[in-house]
Amino acid sequence: MLAAMGVGAAAAALPGRAEAANRVPEEAWAPKPALNPSFADAGRAVTAERTNAEYNNFYEFGSHKGIYRAAQQLRTDPWTIVIDGEVSKPMEIGMEDLLAKMPIEERIYRHRCVEAWSMVAPWIGFELRHLMALVEPTSKARYVRMETLADRDTMPGLRQHWYPWPYTEGLPAAEAAHPLSFMVVGAYGKVLHKQFGAPMRLHVPWKYGFKLLKSINRISFVEERPVGFWEELQGAEYGFWANVNPEFDHPRWTQAEERVLGTGDKIPTQLYNGYAEEVAGLYKDMDQSSRELWF
User: Fold this and answer.
1) What's the pTM?
2) 68 φ, ψ to 5°?
3) How far is residue 266's CA from residue 259's CA, in Å, rounded to a whole number?
4) How many CB atoms lie within 10 A of CB 273?
5) Are strands 117-127 and 257-260 parallel, antiparallel or unpaired?
6) What does the pLDDT average to over 239-268?
7) In this structure, which of 57, 141, 167, 292 has its CB flanked by the most CB atoms within 10 Å?
8) What is the mean pLDDT of the chain?
9) What does the pLDDT look like over 36-92, one tens digit per residue?
């Protein structure tokens, strides 16, 4: 009947339909992760799950926003993460074992894309600094470089050879260690949808984001500043200040406002996405006139 109505495939790809194949262990969250009271109100209503689940950037599955069906091909079980580089305790660890070591909680965070759309999501995860404590970065670990899975068997976007695969981005160690930096393993009270970047993605809420890391399978602590995917592709367009400051436009569009997913409302963009009080001190010595400065 669903097939005759033309909705069978879509229904199978929507939240709750494909999660049986996405076996990040929910038992690792028992009891259900508590909502951190410090992040119980993002200042705006939470975006509907279906709206978020059907509007995603995940270039490994295509450059359009409707990649949620294609993303169901992502294989997340088993999943191993390599953590290496300038650390005292490098490791290769399974997702289940990592979750067992982390304090899992729920946080409601704002998210804004550099493309000038925004949403609010109830993420489940843990602070990145807890993972850092697990591996003990050395004094040489000035940056954290993360890498997204590149599986040519399941990710058709990798055929776009002009992109510098695999997808990578870096954070200064001070950003990574900030309490707001969050490793996401779930959303909307359940394991992370594949199109969100299962089984683990990064969310840095004060940065508008270019894509940010999804389906992370390697985290490396390095001394030299890593060049990220978008910087390598077009550094002049994706500089730091056009990513966090509404008064510093992207070269091709204004950053002064944003379109709220699910409503179409246009609202003013906030400095550091509204988290300036917590993070502005990280950048007080940076050159604010540079358009090409990444971080």
Assistant:
1) 0.90
2) -60, -35
3) 5
4) 24
5) parallel
6) 90
7) 167
8) 88
9) 999 999 999 999 999 999 999 999 999 999 999 999 999 999 999 999 999 999 999
Calpha distance 195→117 (Å, rounded): 17
Mean pLDDT, residues 202-211 taken together: 89
What is the predicted pLDDT for the residue at 294?
52
- Poorest-confidence range of 55-59, 163-167, 243-247, 248-252? 248-252
Position 3 pLDDT exceeds 60: no
Residue 238, pLDDT score: 73
Q: Residue 132 corresponds to which amino acid?
A: M
3-state helix/strand/coil string of the chain: CHHHHCCHHHHHHCCCCCHHHCCCCHHHHCCCCCECHHHCCCCCCCCCHHHHHCCCCCHHHCCCCCCCCHHHHCCCCCCEEEEEECECCCEEEEHHHHHHHCCCEEEEEEEECCCCEEEEEEEEEEEHHHHHHHHCECCCCCEEEEEECCCCCCCHHHHCCCCCCCCEEEEEHHHHCCCCCEEEEEECCEECCHHHCCCCEEECCCCCCCCCCCCEEEEEEECCCCCCHHHHHHCCCCCCHHHCCCCCCECCECCCEEEECCCCCEEECCHHHHCHHHHHHHHCCCCCCCCCCCC
The residues near 201 (Cβ < 8 Å, ≥ 6 apart) are: 183, 184, 192, 212, 213, 214, 215, 216
Average pLDDT value for residue range 160-177:
95
Tokens of 42: 């993002």
- Phi, psi angles (nearest 5°) of residue 98: -65, -45
Token pair belonging to 67:
């990649």
Q: What percent of the chain has pLDDT over 70?
A: 87
Closest to 84 measured CA to CA, from 5, 41, 35, 138: 138
Task: Give per-residue burial for 222-255: e unless 16+ CB within 10 Å, then b.
Answer: beeebbbbbbeeeeebbbbbbbbbbebebeeeeb
